[in-house]
Design goal:
This is L,D-transpeptidase-like protein. With 433 residues, the protein is of the alpha+beta class. It has a domain of 182 residues: Beta Barrel (L,D-transpeptidase catalytic domain-like). It is built from 16 helices and 14 strands. The longest helix has 30 residues.
Length: 433
């Protein structure tokens, strides 16, 4: 009965959270990232999925996966070498993950995933030229997973190991430096069984990709946990950029849509709740507050005028969705220096938004680089309806095989979707009283 109550509790909690999200998301997401918020943040399938314990449908029911239109594996034939017949990256991601899964299962079977032996209480950050048994253990691990081509058995943190550490950090979405903190060692000591579960879960997520994306010649994909945006065209990466996404209390939703409009020099229409709860008090204390913050009254509402200090930056990208989420530029560039970038109210903030606009409009004779610059630095909002809409997918992949290197990347489960899946697995794997 206790286990049944646990399952019931998880289900009720999921429903309550879902209800709260749908009731409040539109209000929350229109807040986005105000300039003051930015200043605050700146300062401060080889086996049945999970051993047949639960299915894609149970994950969908729990809100962990989104319902899919079609099974992408049915729409893409697979060759004998495990690659898809067409060239596009999304369609063969499942096969790539499956190959990595087999590799990790062999590592597990051969007991090669050795724990790195440290005393957490006395551990000091490792850096180049340091030495000791722990260095040798780290070297062995990086060799086993492929970050090093050979294992010299050396206990000295040398240049060879430095290169391996950089590759490891790149695959895990970490800051590219040579320091190895306790947090990094704890990450390396994550059981390989957990990594295998993560790979399997993300193989299932491949099945949930929208069918129109897997065969598209042009699309945008944002991977939320990796804080990265990719614009793919004709099977190649046309443009990439770092992003930051919604805070845990205001998640960037997994969704698919079509980018249909670019708005240069956008206004930020401030939600009434912020006007009532914050701005009115500030305007009362300082009669010049609106002018000093490039704001104005507009039909009984307050909006922030276009300009470099506008909270939406110099350009935004629109796509219809029920969550009022869109992508936009940001003046808070220093936030991109951080490893974990969950700061917004749900929208995706793009580090190089200008670059994305140029990439999308590259072959549009009506939009030269000079015209884009002018429109982004205008005093009035300039909307532009795209001649060809671009599919976009806000995805949640915590394991992903790189297009170019074929290496597996793991990213933090920032919204606990993987963790919730494991809890669901555990609750479904017990016999109820």
């Amino acid at each position: 009965m206790r286990n049944f109550n646990l399952l019931l509790g998880l289900t009720v909690t999921s429903l309550l959270l879902s209800s709260f999200s749908y009731d409040n998301k539109k209000t929350a997401n229109t807040i986005f990232c105000s300039q003051e918020n930015m200043q605050y943040f700146e300062n401060n399938t080889s086996q049945i999925f999970f051993d047949r314990i639960y299915t894609s449908q149970s994950l969908i029911n729990a809100g962990i996966l989104k319902p899919h239109q079609n099974d992408t594996l049915k729409s893409n034939k697979v060759k004998s070498d495990g690659t898809a017949e067409n060239q596009y990256a999304l369609s063969n991601q499942y096969a790539k993950l499956q190959k990595v899964l087999e590799k990790y299962q062999i590592i597990e079977k051969n007991n090669q995933w050795k724990k790195i032996d440290i005393d957490p209480a006395n551990y000091k950050e490792l850096k180049p030229t340091d030495s000791g048994a722990v260095v040798r253990q780290i070297r062995e691990r990086l060799f086993i997973v492929g970050d090093l081509k050979k294992d010299s058995k050396s206990e000295i943190y040398d240049e060879e190991l430095m290169a391996g550490v950089l590759n490891y950090k790149k695959r895990y979405g970490l800051a590219l430096n040579y320091q190895l903190t306790l947090e990094h060692i704890n990450q390396m000591n994550e059981p390989i069984s957990n990594r295998i579960k993560t790979i399997k879960l993300n193989m299932e997520r491949c099945r949930e990709m929208p069918a129109n994306l897997t065969d598209a010649t042009e699309y945008i994909i944002v991977n939320i946990p990796s804080y990265r945006l990719f614009y793919i065209k004709d099977g190649k990466s046309e443009f990439e950029s770092d992003v930051f996404v919604g805070a845990k209390w205001s998640e960037t939703e997994v969704l698919s849509s079509m980018v249909d409009k670019i708005v240069f020099s956008p206004y930020w229409n401030i939600p009434q709740s912020i006007i009532d709860n914050e701005l009115k008090l500030k305007m009362y204390a300082d009669k010049n507050y609106l002018e000093e913050n490039n704001m104005e009254w507009n039909g009984g509402r307050v909006r922030q005028k276009p300009g470099p200090t506008n909270s939406l930056g110099l350009v935004k990208f629109m796509f219809p969705n029920q969550y009022d989420i869109y992508m936009h530029d940001t003046p808070a560039k220093s936030l991109f220096l951080l490893e974990k970038r969950t700061f917004s109210h749900g929208c995706v903030n793009i580090k190089d938004a200008k670059g994305l606009a140029q990439a999308i409009l590259k072959n549009d004779p009506d939009w030269t680089v000079e015209k884009i610059d002018t429109a982004m630095n205008g005093e009035k909002e300039t909307p532009y309806e795209l001649k060809n809409k671009i599919p976009i997918y806000m995805s949640y992949f915590t394991a992903w095989v790189s297009y170019d290197t074929g290496e597996i990347n793991f990213f933090d489960d920032i919204y606990d979707k993987d963790r919730n899946a494991v809890q669901l697995q555990n609750s479904n794997s017990v016999v109820m009283d």
